[in-house]
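Incident log, support desk, overnight shift.

02:14 A customer reports that sequence design results differ from what the structure should imply. Their input is reproduced verbatim below. On-call engineer (initials T.W.) acknowledged and began investigating.
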């Protein structure tokens, strides 16, 4: 993967390499390590060159695990990896260390990924670049101990697939790391991210796994990139994911004949590319595709769901070509993440949920005039639901209305606030509540009225959930009211003159 791909690229990736600013000595590091990853994990790729905080995007999106792309050397011939191949971003606690600790503290983890399209085509993938197996192994170990991670990913494509010496060095180094981890009491997994056809790995990708078997290197996850097929065929990207993974399953069954069907499926990972991939619109992965893949992945018990990349999970460039920062299709921000995120817990489909906001969230109006704001809703998990909108909090002299009052999550309504000259000057919170079968959410618009001739109620506003005793006063709809006895939930003015509330007149 790289940033801007050529016609033969397989996963958007730019120079992003996690590696060691100084090589770790074999055996270095504490025996205490991060907890192993879940048996099923959603870990989208994070583009590390953008300057964004991985912890912040993980928090905003709901993706608790991230695959950090990429680690590579600064130049061919080097044995020292850096994030993004940038010597200013060494493998150290000062580079992404605090972000990774925060992600781990929140119950997630990161998977540092070596390689990627740029590294694999410039000789800067560490096993292609460095001729010393021990130094390659030491670099892997330094990443593990510096960030206290439980898995490393090897993104191997294009030229690196055909570099047989590099393939052999990489797997020999992986075997050394696995021996070191076992001696240190660490659980370290290795994933290989490889390009695929719609029927499984091509011979070059399969050769990487065969070499791992020959060298005794354990491959925990074979992760296929199910996009950028470049075969000029008609594609249903979800169906193609399933046929590609089935082909991989059959290939793994021959490489690991002693493994059960469940164990083989548990070795498989799938990485999608949301929206339009590098080939173009003929290879478009839709939200409907994502939901199909999610259900299939849960049913098969595969190990990893991922996509390239977290920063693309938004609809800011509908109708556009493949890009690093948007999907090229109509969507809400984090739509694909919200579909895939429940995979980590592994058992249930995403629960339906939504958000509601007022935009702008505040405004000022002269008494006698009107103000409007947009009430925006978005799907935050699962399917779009029908929402019923209501509004409250408008003071005397202000009439609030919504259009429409019923909509699908993802659509917007307009809140209109008409004032009269009798409205009292002041600032009021107007609440818009959206109700759905799964629950409700409320957005607040702060309205400031100026130049009004009305008076302001100074008594505490009546609240439906509060308990009132005899003698307590409240304000409600421009009047003061006094409780005659204990009450809760009884709206002033609705129980008549013999009711609990005595009308003390306008404020």
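02:41 Re-run completed on a clean worker. Output:
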């Amino acid at each position: 993967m790289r940033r801007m791909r050529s016609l033969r690229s397989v996963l958007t990736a730019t120079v992003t390499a996690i590696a060691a600013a100084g090589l770790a000595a074999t055996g270095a590091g504490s025996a205490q390590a991060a907890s192993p990853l879940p048996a099923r994990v959603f870990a989208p790729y994070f583009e590390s060159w953008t300057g964004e905080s991985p912890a912040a995007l993980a928090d905003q999106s709901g993706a608790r695990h991230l695959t950090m792309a990429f680690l590579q050397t600064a130049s061919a011939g080097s044995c020292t990896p850096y994030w993004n191949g940038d010597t200013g971003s060494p493998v150290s606690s000062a580079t992404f260390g605090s972000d990774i600790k925060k992600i781990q503290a929140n119950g997630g983890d990161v998977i540092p990924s070596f390689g990627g399209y740029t590294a694999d085509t410039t000789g800067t993938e560490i096993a292609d670049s460095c001729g010393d197996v021990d130094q390659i192994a030491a670099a892997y170990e330094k990443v593990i101990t510096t960030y206290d991670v439980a898995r490393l990913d090897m993104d191997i494509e294009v030229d690196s697939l055909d570099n047989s010496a590099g393939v052999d060095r990489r797997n020999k180094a992986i075997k050394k790391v696995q021996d070191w981890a076992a001696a240190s009491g660490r659980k370290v997994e290795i994933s290989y991210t490889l390009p695929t056809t719609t029927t499984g790995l091509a011979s070059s990708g399969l050769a990487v796994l065969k070499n791992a078997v020959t060298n005794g290197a354990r491959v925990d996850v074979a992760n296929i990139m199910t996009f950028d097929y470049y075969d000029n065929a008609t594609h249903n990207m979800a169906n193609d994911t399933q046929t590609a993974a089935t082909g991989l399953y059959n290939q793994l069954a021959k490489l690991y004949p002693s493994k059960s069907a469940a164990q083989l499926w548990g070795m498989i990972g799938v990485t999608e590319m949301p929206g339009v991939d590098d080939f173009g619109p003929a290879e478009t992965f839709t939200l409907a595709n994502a939901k199909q893949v999610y259900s299939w992945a849960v049913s098969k018990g595969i190990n990893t769901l991922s996509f390239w990349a977290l920063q693309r999970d938004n609809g800011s460039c509908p109708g556009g070509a493949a890009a690093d920062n948007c999907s090229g299709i109509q969507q809400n921000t984090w739509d694909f993440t919200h579909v895939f995120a429940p995979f980590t817990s592994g058992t249930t489909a995403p629960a339906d949920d939504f958000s509601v906001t007022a935009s702008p969230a505040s405004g000022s109006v002269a008494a006698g005039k009107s103000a409007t704001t947009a009430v925006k809703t978005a799907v935050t998990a699962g399917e779009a639901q029908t929402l019923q909108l209501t509004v409250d909090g408008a003071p005397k002299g202000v009439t609030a209305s919504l259009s429409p009052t019923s909509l699908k999550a993802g659509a917007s309504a307009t809140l209109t606030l008409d004032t009269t000259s009798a409205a009292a000057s002041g600032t009021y919170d107007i609440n818009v509540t959206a109700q759905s079968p799964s629950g409700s959410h409320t957005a607040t618009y702060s309205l400031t009225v100026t130049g009004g001739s009305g008076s302001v109620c100074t008594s505490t506003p009546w609240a439906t959930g509060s308990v009132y005793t005899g003698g307590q006063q409240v304000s409600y709809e421009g009047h003061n009211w006094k409780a005659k006895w204990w009450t809760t939930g009884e709206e002033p003015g609705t129980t008549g003159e013999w009711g609990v509330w005595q009308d003390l007149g306008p404020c």
